[in-house]
């Protein structure tokens, strides 16, 4: 048994935690990466699809993916080129999100209840670009719960980064004037869970959007990355939070 915690702040990932955006985003992203591979004469075994990309890069932002791909395939991009592609990827993905985005099942009822109770400060902490995160939460009308407490590893920091770097969680806590002990994070990816854990925050690992076949594997991955409790559905959120507050996890 750990000690009881006075939790004041909930830091929520956006993609596939609040909104079902990963598949849509990775579809748009794959098209662009295949175009880059052609222009750089990168010998891909086969072109990326949204599905193959998501398996490899879930939780990383586009800039992070580009860095990994350059290392893997030994090609180079100038900073200006990379910035241009990052902007283009944002545009492609935002267009897809505005067209088709839906909230994660059950999350809206939880957010509404948390907002009505007023016990916790609610914030979004994402790797994705701020413009994309805002477009996402506005499309599904969740923006009313977060105000200006929306933080992006790609946009909000002096030097852009991506989870699993803990920088964005450290930045969010500093902006909110909170300590790690007062916070709980909700994350659906290995990189996000590592980011929160490395910032000293207790993380609830959320596996809701994964297929039934993938769920057991993801539960293991998120637990190994530091998640203290696993949430299969947003209906379990109160129980998961209570476990952390009571010190039982």
**Secondary-structure element pattern, one letter each:** EHHHHHEHEHEHEHEH
**Fourth-tier CATH superfamily name of the largest domain:** HAD superfamily/HAD-like
Classified by CATH, the class of the largest domain is: Alpha Beta
Please tally the β strands and state the result: 6
**What is the mean predicted local confidence, pLDDT?**
95
Sheet with the most strands: spatial strand order: 3-2-1-4-5-6
> What kind of sheet is the major sheet?
6 strands, parallel
Please bin the fraction of helical residues.
40-55%
Helix/strand class? alpha/beta
Backbone CA Rg: 18 Å
Question: Ranges with pLDDT <50 over ≥5 residues?
Answer: none
CATH topology of the largest domain: Rossmann fold
> Strand-residue fraction?
5-15%
Shape: globular
Q: Which architecture of the largest domain does the CATH hierarchy give at level 2?
A: 3-Layer(aba) Sandwich
Topology readout:
Layout: E1 9-12, H1 22-39, H2 50-57, H3 62-73, H4 79-100, H5 107-117, E2 121-126, H6 130-139, E3 150-152, H7 167-176, E4 183-187, H8 190-198, E5 202-206, H9 215-224, E6 229-231, H10 237-246
Parallel strand pairs: 1-2, 1-4, 2-3, 4-5, 5-6
Features:
single chain, about 250 residues, alpha/beta, Rossmann fold, six-stranded parallel sheet, 10 helices, about 10% strand, globular
Description of the molecule:
This protein is α/β, with parallel strands linked by helices and 249 residues long. It has 2 domains: 9-20 and 102-246, Rossmann fold; 22-100. The protein has helices at residues 22-39, 50-57, 62-73, 79-100, 107-117, 130-139, 167-176, 190-198, 215-224, 237-246; strands at residues 9-12, 121-126, 150-152, 183-187, 202-206, 229-231. A 6-stranded parallel β-sheet has the order 3-2-1-4-5-6, with helices on both faces. Helix 8 links the parallel strand 4 (183-187) and strand 5 (202-206). The longest helix has 22 residues, at 79-100. The chain starts with 8 loop residues before the first strand and ends with a helix. The mean pLDDT is 95.
